[in-house]
């Protein structure tokens, strides 16, 4: 890739909770970043990050995608949460990127995209295949469950002394602070050392909800009780979420921290430190 001062990177879903963490890492490296956001109301979010080059549109809107990709060298791609027809939209984006002359795509995929029962995992595999077939440079990031998913519930956990999710309290997960993933993404976009690689990204520890609650209790200084949240039948839960919760009820989702540690050259951020940040805020 060219020097960072001339490198133009498109951040897809730039106002989202993941890509918005990648943007500061790119700006630290003096990269020119264009934001692709879903709606006009998202523009202030990326403007606060320091961006002025902003394209608004749907990933399924071919003219908007073409406009976003014009003159771009590399793309950070992540599918927005609850994206309809995720696999097909992703494949269409890959084709549009190739047509636009993009050289590299860094895809924030998911840990274990081979899990066909988990639609949000399986939908990533066809996009990876499209990138492999495209002839463009690529890097695949396979992050575990994000620490940041816990953040929105923190205030309620402290207030009620209860932490619940709609699957077994015994299920163990690997997790990762997406700020560490963002740093890896920036490296992948601006350097050559991760090129054509697939990287499982996890912090240390494989914790169940009992472990999480115990850690929360230590940080907040009061007892936090772990529970399984029961979803009412009338809740009209999307089928793919129902399948995901049923799978999580019976299966762990685990990975290894070695790769993340090696790429960063330091220890990954810890869940305890993340909880301490939440508690101090």
From TrEMBL:
<dbReference type="InterPro" id="IPR036291">
    <property type="entry name" value="NAD(P)-bd_dom_sf"/>
</dbReference>
<feature type="domain" description="NmrA-like">
    <location>
        <begin position="8"/>
        <end position="255"/>
    </location>
</feature>
<dbReference type="Pfam" id="PF05368">
    <property type="entry name" value="NmrA"/>
</dbReference>
<protein>
    <submittedName>
        <fullName>Oxidoreductase</fullName>
    </submittedName>
</protein>
<dbReference type="InterPro" id="IPR008030">
    <property type="entry name" value="NmrA-like"/>
</dbReference>
<dbReference type="InterPro" id="IPR051604">
    <property type="entry name" value="Ergot_Alk_Oxidoreductase"/>
</dbReference>
């Amino acid at each position: 890739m060219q020097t960072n001062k001339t490198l133009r990177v498109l951040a897809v879903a730039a106002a989202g909770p993941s890509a918005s963490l990648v943007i500061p890492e790119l700006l630290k490296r003096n990269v020119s970043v264009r934001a692709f956001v879903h709606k006009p109301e998202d523009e202030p979010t990326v403007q606060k990050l320091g961006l002025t080059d902003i394209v608004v549109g749907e990933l399924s809107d071919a003219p908007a995608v073409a406009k976003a990709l014009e003159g771009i060298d590399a793309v950070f791609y992540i599918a927005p949460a609850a994206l309809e027809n995720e696999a097909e939209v992703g494949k269409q984006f890959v084709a549009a990127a190739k047509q636009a002359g993009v050289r590299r795509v860094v895809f924030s995929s998911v840990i274990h995209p081979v899990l066909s029962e988990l639609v949000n995992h399986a939908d990533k595999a066809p996009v990876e295949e499209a990138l492999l077939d495209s002839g463009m440079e690529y890097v695949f990031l396979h992050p575990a469950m994000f620490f940041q998913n816990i953040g929105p519930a923190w205030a309620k956990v402290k207030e009620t002394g209860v932490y619940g999710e709609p699957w077994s309290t015994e299920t163990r997960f690997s997790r990762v602070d997406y700020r560490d993933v963002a740093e890896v993404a920036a490296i992948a976009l601006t350097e050559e050392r991760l090129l054509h690689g697939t990287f499982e990204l996890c912090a240390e520890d494989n914790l169940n909800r009992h472990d999480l609650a115990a850690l929360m209790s230590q940080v907040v200084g009061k007892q936090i009780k772990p529970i399984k949240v029961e979803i009412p039948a009338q809740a009209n839960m999307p089928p793919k979420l129902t399948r995901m919760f049923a799978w999580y009820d019976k299966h762990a989702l685990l990975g290894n921290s070695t790769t993340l540690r090696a790429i960063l050259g330091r220890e990954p951020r810890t869940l305890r430190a993340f909880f301490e940040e939440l508690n101090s805020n």
